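Supplementary Methods, section 5.1.

A reviewer requested that the exact input to the structure prediction be made available. We therefore reproduce it here, unchanged from the version used in the analyses.
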Amino acid sequence: MVTIGELLAATPVARREARLLLSRSSELPEAILAAFPEREVLPEAASRFRALAARRAAGEPVAYLLGEREFFGRPFKVTPAVLIPRPETELVVERALATVAGRTDVSVADLGTGSGAIAVTLACELPQAQITAVDRCADALEVARANALALAPQRVDFRQGSWYAPLQGRRFTFIVSNPPYIAKADPHPSQGDLRFEPRTALIGGDDGLACLREIIHGAAHHLQDSGQLILEHGYDQGDAVRRLMESAGFCAIATHRDLAGLERVTEARFST
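The structure derived from this sequence is encoded token-by-token as follows.
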């Protein structure tokens, strides 16, 4: 049999990622892997690890290999049907929580919910709020429903459809979204981990603003008076999003920076 240290040393995968994969393959905690490199690994576990490591070396994201990714301190199931939740998206949740300020009469629509990371997190953080999550992809909604069942059972109303289509006649305190915002000609979706993520969750039309534009211009019909629209966007799209919100009649427009100091989330208030 091979030892933990020998397995980790022989793989081209980064050590931190290799430990995650070996922990999953061997069902041993990472602390054990780090503390006892001389410990032998069962042949079946070593075989599972080598298979996962080979897939990672080929570029497949660790989150898909493990089947989960942490978001706002909670484990979320992920599959290739959904975008992998990212730390910068937590800013959308933080801004929504900051704006609520203790209110209990809150209703939220999460557009393009994907894994359900935003909607389910808000359901956990705001137990009195009414949460509705929309996605046009049935496979994505299956993942989101599984996450809701595990973390916030019976707390999120899932609807299938494109943006506002399943929400006719409804108005909300908040509309939140992390929509596709990469321009069609941008080379990044063909590089690195992004190669494995769904293009429909990444590409936002020729200029990257198509989905943002549609959400902004449709929000007035689905926000309550003084309701808030909170959107994630590309690091270089803050000015364009602010102008779109202003042209749509929003006020109190503000852009917030992520931990890297990049403009990442813009919010605005709707007033009749």
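The chain has a mean pLDDT of 95. These observations are discussed further in the main text.
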